[in-house]
Amino acid sequence: MNIHQFSAGFQLGDAISQEMLEIKRLLSKEGYHGKIFAENVFSYDRKYAEKLTKANIKPNDVLVYHHSIHSEVLNFVLKFPNRKILIYHNVTPEDFFSGYDLKFSYLLRKGREDLEIIRDQFHHSFAVSNFNLAELKEIGFKHVRLLPLHLNFQKWKDVPKDPKSKSFTQPSFLFVGRIAPNKRQDDLIRFARTWKSKMGNQFSMRMLGFCNPNQQSYMDELNFMIHHLDLTEEVKIISYVDERMLKKIYSESNIFLSMSEHEGFCVPLMEAIFFHLPVVAFAAGAVPETLDQSGILFESKDFESLVPLVDSIFKDSDFRNSIIYSQNLRLNEYLESTSILPLLEVAKP
């Protein structure tokens, strides 16, 4: 029996792609074979995933479908009578993109509609967070279960264990995530402008993430803001890096700041915790659940009030250490909660 995984796209730095790779690794340890297929796969990622057209499905194969947007992948999977399992990563509300990318907005709307088809035709369903689980239950999924994301930090084995190894003398803000309207990099820039006006220019902010070429107008808007608000020296957008460079950037940064207004989980929050970065995040979507009483959450984008709070993280070492300590507890608790067994239970005939 093969357990194949499917998604709309595969890109090595993407959270869903990382999850598929980790599931494949864990299944292999249990003696199961299977491949990863996607409609869109960059040529340099094809050693990890294959184009959908390459899939050769046999009668006993199990099909695991990771859903986040409409694509032809769902129609392909539905053609087969095989056991079908959903892993739901959430569909971003279309409204975030309607002013930037009408096609993408349409695919998100269709992705929401696809859930009703999946509900009626799939054998089993999982969600990667309780936030996502609640959405599925609201539209009538009966036996959906939680399957926490499998995070693999083995690739960063030599990260210092002692959080005191990190310097907090000069603020180095970081956000990791797609350059996209729901991630609200524009609000990060507004925060940077408020910080500069109150605290001076001795800081940096890096926003790291891939931008869909069809959403270039949002990137253009961000670049205009950076220039217009006199932040070209302090704020940088970095479009793509490999794992080695990602590790370097996490290691060099000393606070993770998120303004995102929709997250189904948000893996970079956990990555930041792993690298001992205090996390300050807008309390939207699954973010409060992911942090679970750790980090600093804020519910209003009042930057005039947020700046002194963030500044206290740099100036008060006891406050900072308490944040990092609670974050480490959360990360350890989360890593202990993950297991491939729930998936194996429903995959077996």
TrEMBL record:
It is an enzyme of class 2 (transferase). Its EC number is 2.4.-.-. SUPFAM superfamilies: UDP-Glycosyltransferase/glycogen phosphorylase. It comes from Leptospira wolbachii serovar Codice str. CDC. Keywords: Glycosyltransferase, Transferase. The keyword Cell membrane does not apply. Residues 169-325 form the Glycosyl transferase family domain. This is Glycosyltransferase, group 1 family protein. GO terms for molecular function: glycosyltransferase activity. GO terms for biological process: lipopolysaccharide biosynthetic process. Gene3D superfamilies: Glycogen Phosphorylase B. It comes from the Bacteria.
